[in-house]
Design a protein that fits this description.
Length: about 900
């Protein structure tokens, strides 16, 4: 010191010399004394001493002043208590900063919890059975002009394989029927239940392969006799209440009585086997003799017929597939539809979309990557906001360092503050996840629950997530802020290099908005493709047409009588008896011969059984020939233009007169007309060669064209007529346009997911922008003040910020556009009929980004632009 001063109370000096680190003693006797000298001259000794004591007491906090060696002052409890107090005060002082961080982290962690639960649930499918690595499902590859994949097999295959070869320890055939009618007769009451996909005809060995334990009954004998059945506990209670269901009887399709011989535990949610009613396989002879036949069943594959095998230990999958190929040569030697039977591992059943798997592993990987991205961007935004706050806290850090705090103490102080924000966000995330899981289950059609007390993996994930996010989000700000030089901080000389690389921030913002724009591009393309599929001309009229189930016991005479009665009702414009609508998920695949050829064609055809009113009801267009004549037998056939092309005929007119032989020779009739092509499946598939003919044994629906102004009353009247004719059955109907919309259920679900993730990504990107603009505003405070003093307008100052963000968004777009185009171009390859990706898609993507960015930064920019320049300069 240059001159002698009157020191403050000697007691304080003696205490600090004894308590403090030597660095602190130098500070007290150096810089702090200069402040005291200035106060002494201005305020006098009494007030200067008092202010000196107050200043020291404010700084005298555990964890900030480093004590001298050998002095034990603060305990871990006291240190963490201090950390909590300091962190809490900072969070309360900066409410906007705290709320934004908590919101961003909570939203991303909620998504993380959802995704973890979905991935965990799907990966656990059917892993609870004994010896799951030896369980396989037999599937079929159908080789024609194209290869088709089916998870079904000819019904006799399982029995022949069991008897002919020793490779399997157990073989079980299961046939699942959809839309089965179950009736119970209780006194004079007839209770009717529609069980969609819940009824299976199963061999006894099914319960030897799969681990579905019985509560009542013996699995070895429960399904040996015809007309016996096993129910799950849920179905038993549904039908028979709390009393034992064993010995009770229900009726299948009003014609087959089934006696309950066992009750299963309810099936777990993580299995692809969803049947809750198992009828003995011997009963199939009464239900469907053709399907139960040991010879006729080789001629085709029925949906729902599956075969499972439990291989012997050490059995070769390749060898089994090789020996099964012999069945094709023996039982299908002349068919152009060449079968190849393969073994599909049980672990692959849930994930293989080719064979009907409900969740591809690729989708789980995509969900996981999205979850990680959301976590990473939330952490990045936290870093941006934290380092943007650095200038405000730099003097605090400088004073602490001068008072003896070491870097490690400051680092863990910031980590502790980050942990407070993270675990607050985690609590909010857990609450949001608990509230949101019913909606997630409805969306994904799952039954996932969150129970932290019983599900230790979920509890471990949530706790681990909190610690990982705390470290990732807090490490860099803690490292940067604890490394602040005290001299530069106290003198206000910090530069942006001192508090983090600004270019790194720019890069992160560009990455965030690039991903957001990719999601926007994907959303726009999927929306346009869905609109194209729903609004395009399908080649037939789908509006106001309702398909009404004709009833399982409808004969030709009964159905025709009902058709005539319905046609006379007010509001009915047209009606036809048919198998299905022109575009339907149900079809009758067949192999045909043309004229006198003895060999079948090498392509698949689809037969649509319908009466002569089918063409007018659906407004199908004839391009050559005439319509069918009214008949109850196969006398004539209509074909579509795709059939003409497949037969290599020159024109539709050339097709007239050719003879079609179908259904193994039982159908033989000339072509009398050619229909303009119509979409018989979704836009994913090409238009199939189609035959339309009068085959009344296959009429299962009434197609009714309604006047929609009185549709409700008309349907009520139809139901009354129908119920009078079929009192023991359920009246069912579906509008054609709604059924067609189900073709795109997966795409609609994908679109909703992309919309949700797009919103979250944009929201998190906005938080990143907010952090960047906050940082820029702190850095440019003095520059803005000088510009305003020199006459700069608010618009000019706003443009200083606007051009920065516009440049970042344009760079992000330059990255997102080719990536988005490539991804959506590949996605569209799954459609035979697709839109083209036009320039407006990309204009919309960058326009949305600019609009959102403007809203995000506008308030902060204008707030900064309107600050009084005198205040700005004084702050600096």
């Amino acid at each position: 010191m240059t001159k002698k001063t009157e020191h403050p109370p000697k007691l304080f000096l003696k205490f600090f010399r004894w308590y403090c680190h030597p660095q602190m003693q130098d500070y007290i006797e150096g810089d702090l004394m200069e402040v005291y000298d200035a106060r002494l001259k201005k305020l006098g000794k009494r007030k200067a001493d008092l202010k000196f004591i107050v200043d020291v007491l404010l700084l005298f906090r555990p964890g900030i002043i480093k004590p001298a060696e050998g002095y034990k002052h603060s305990t871990p409890y006291g240190m963490y208590k201090s950390y909590f107090k300091i962190g809490w005060r900072n969070l309360i002082r900066n409410k906007a900063y705290s709320i934004i961080n908590v919101a961003g982290l909570a939203l991303s962690m909620t998504c993380g919890i959802f995704i973890f639960a979905l991935v965990k649930h799907n990966l656990s499918f059917d892993n609870f059975h004994q010896n799951p690595e030896r369980i396989y499902r037999v599937v079929t590859e159908l080789h024609r002009d194209v290869i088709a994949y089916r998870n079904n097999v000819p019904s006799p295959l399982g029995e022949f394989f069991r008897n002919d070869y020793p490779y399997a320890e157990k073989v079980a055939r299961v046939y699942t029927e959809s839309g089965s009618l179950i009736t119970l007769r209780k006194g004079n009451d007839l209770l009717k239940f529609k069980e969609d996909g819940n009824v299976s005809f199963a061999e006894t060995t099914f319960f030897d392969i799969f681990n579905f334990p019985l509560l009542e009954g013996d699995k070895a004998t429960a399904l040996t006799a015809p007309n016996t059945a096993i129910l799950t506990k849920r179905m038993a209670q549904k039908y028979f209440g709390d009393k034992s269901a064993v010995g009770e009887t229900f009726w299948l399709e009003n014609k087959i009585p089934c006696t309950v011989t066992g009750v299963l535990h309810d099936l777990p949610t993580n299995t692809d086997i969803r049947s809750e009613i198992f009828v003995s396989y011997a009963t199939l002879k009464s239900y469907d003799p053709w399907l139960a036949s040991a010879t006729d069943g080789w001629n085709g594959i029925r949906d729902g017929m599956k075969c499972y095998v439990l291989l012997q230990p050490g059995a070769s999958v390749a060898k089994v597939e090789e020996v099964m190929s012999a069945y094709v040569k023996i039982y299908r030697p002349t068919s152009k539809n060449v079968h190849r039977y393969k073994l599909q591992p049980l672990a692959d059943v849930h994930f293989n979309a080719q064979y009907g798997g409900s969740m591809e592993k690729r989708s789980l990987w995509i969900l996981s990557v999205i979850g990680l991205f959301l976590m990473a961007t939330a952490c990045v935004n936290f870093i941006n906001l934290a380092t943007a706050q650095a200038l405000k806290r730099s003097k605090e850090v400088g004073v602490r360092k001068v008072l003896g705090s070491i870097k490690r103490q400051l680092f863990w102080q910031f980590i502790f503050e980050t942990g407070m924000i993270t675990f607050t966000g985690l609590i909010v995330a857990a609450m949001l996840a608990y509230i949101g899981f019913p909606y997630v289950n409805a969306f994904f059609k799952t039954q996932i629950t969150i129970n932290l007390f019983s599900d230790w993996t979920m509890a471990l994930f949530i706790v681990g997530l909190g610690f990982v996010v705390t470290f990732l989000a807090g490490y860099y700000p803690g490292l940067v802020l604890s490394g602040v030089q005290p001299v530069a901080a106290l003198k206000g000389k910090l530069s942006q290099q001192n508090i983090g690389d600004f270019n790194t921030r720019r890069t992160l913002i560009v990455a965030q908005f690039a991903i957001s724009q990719v999601l926007i591009i994907g959303m726009v393309v999927i929306m346009n493709q869905m609109r194209f599929a729903k609004q395009s001309d399908l080649g037939f009229d789908k509006e106001a047409i309702v398909m009404i189930n004709a009833g399982r016991d409808s004969t030709g005479t009964v159905a025709n009588t009902m058709k005539n009665e319905i046609s006379r009702l007010p509001g009915v414009e047209k009606i036809s008896l048919c198998f299905a609508a022109p575009s339907s998920e149900h079809d009758w695949g067949n192999s045909i011969r043309i004229d006198n050829n003895t060999e079948e064609v090498n392509f698949r055809t689809s037969i649509k059984s319908a009466d002569a009113d089918y063409v007018s009801t659906f407004d199908l267009e004839l391009v050559a020939g005439r319509n069918l004549v009214t008949s109850d037998t196969v006398r004539e056939m209509l074909v579509n233009e795709a059939m003409v092309r497949k037969l290599n005929l020159k024109s539709p007119e050339d097709a007239i007169g050719h003879i079609i032989v179908a259904n193994g020779g039982s159908m033989k009739a000339p072509i009398v007309g050619v229909l303009r092509d119509f979409h018989d499946k979704s836009f994913h598939e090409e238009i199939n060669p189609i035959l339309v003919t009068t085959y009344r044994d296959d009429y299962s629906n009434y197609a009714v064209k309604l006047n929609m102004t009185q549709a409700k009353s008309t349907l009520t009247a139809i139901e009354k007529l129908w119920t009078q004719q079929h009192p023991d059955q359920l009246f069912e109907y579906a509008f054609v346009d709604e059924s067609i919309a189900q073709f795109y259920a997966n795409e609609e679900a994908t679109l909703k997911l992309i919309q949700i993730f797009c919103f979250i990504a944009i929201f998190i990107g906005c938080l990143g922008l907010y952090g960047l603009v906050s940082f820029m505003a702190s850095q440019k405070t003095k520059e803005i003040g000088i510009r305003k003093v020199l006459g700069g307008s608010v618009a000019h100052i706003a443009w200083l910020f606007g051009k920065e963000f516009a440049r970042l968004i344009v760079i992000a777009f330059a990255l997102a556009a080719p990536i988005g185009w490539w991804l959506m171009h590949n996605w569209l390859q799954g459609f035979e009929f697709q839109i083209s990706i036009n320039a407006w898609t990309f204009v919309l993507a960058i326009g949305c980004s600019l609009f959102v960015a403007t809203l995000t930064v506008g308030y902060q920019v204008l707030k900064t632009a309107f600050v009084n320049p005198a205040k700005s300069l004084r702050i600096e």
